[in-house]
Amino acid sequence: MELLLIQSQEHDKLPLAELRAVLEVEEIETDIKVVCPGIVLLNSLAEDKFDEYYQILVRRLGYTHEVHQLISTVEYESLEDEVVSIDWSEFIKENFAVRVKRFDSAIDTVATERRVGHLILTNTDGISVNLTEPKSFIRAVAHQNTVYLCYGKYQLNKKYFEIMKPHKRPFFHPGCMSPKLARCMVNLARVKEEDFVLDPFCGTGGILIEAGLIGAKVIGSDIDWRMKRGAATNLDYAGVTDYRTCVVDVRELKMYEEVDAVVTDPPYGISTTTCGEGTDGIFKEFLSSIEHSMKKDALLVMASPDSLDIDSLLDDVGFVLLERYSIKMHKSLTRIISVIAKIH
Fold it and tell me: How many domains does the chain have?
């Protein structure tokens, strides 16, 4: 069985990297085919696990907009015959809507939606069209002259990343990371349900929220007591219950148990609290101290400014770089996202 993913195109590498990380940690065996930027097919998914895998991807992915069951692939000239040949009663209950999305294609989206919808309606008993709140959603994805007919059984909560933007949470501080990037970083850390995840520079708790919402147990520390209290307020607001927050300098952090992952955005820039320590010093001290709190196979996923030479710091401690991605934030800041492992 196959899934079609419509991915964000706001970054050229992160959406696919995040997907690969989730497939790895959730042990989902599949063949990945990138049709074009924005469209990814997952082929050869086990039928008995298909529904479970579908729900996992919908629940976890940040840089993916839609996940659909692929029904059929057809050239545009044969689309009408293909639509008529499909037993739509397997996918549509009561009412439905058809929506077309184009990628490098010149087809008429409105005309195609109307024609496909009409053919489905006239060849399927007991259903109706509902364009506002359909119980069944049919997505047709057009790439050049090929059309992928899909069924949207499970829907991503597209509004979540908007309503959970940092300035909309109860406690806000400038320089907060977007929830979409925070979710991606948690996924890059290969976090599983019940894993113990640490953010030693937790700030307002954005990374902790995303780890908590996928089922991890989270702990956040910060040198600023206001951040400790604010992070707890935001975690409560997001519905995360299995958490701890504390006030401590990362250089003095002593964990009672080793963690499964460290995901963090250490302070840098004029709006952050560094307590007199320069950016280079903060990162060096952090890397030197955090290794002892991590399990042998734990990953560290960290954001840093592009002005910082992370490689030279890693050479001095027991870590090795696995993956690296750069994100242009604004004119004066490019964030570097690094996936780092301990050297055994």
Answer: 2
